[in-house]
Amino acid sequence: MKKLLLIFLSCGFLSSCASINSDNNKDTSLIYQEYASEQKLEAVNKILLFKLHGWRYLDQKHLILETSPNKPYLLTLKSRCSELKFAHAIATKHSVKGSLSINFDAVYVPEFEQKKCYISTIHKMNKEQANELVELSKSKETAK
Fold first, then answer.
1. Residue 24: which domain range?
2. Which of 31, 36, 24 is CA-nearest to residue 130?
């Protein structure tokens, strides 16, 4: 009977931890969506003449890609891409050479090439907005 009670309590604890983590991921995603809306960031279907200059990690579903030092874009991914957090480099998969499109193209970590992270949305932004999002990401990370 004690073992059954212990198993039941363990399952309840684990499911509540999973729920809390899921809520935190939802909160973070909402923060970036709200920021894009408040700042009136322009949503685009593709980045033309795409050449990766740099990138910055925000969370498992959001990152900033830069095509030049002054041309950052906020990318939202269709699913979580846990490999990005500790990646030293990323690569892109293009459906059309020289552009990066929502729904068809992806980012991935070269060491995990089989795990493609498809792009859901792309928003144009300026350098200051990109820096604000990075600071927002850091403040959410320290709050955890």
1. 2-143
2. 36
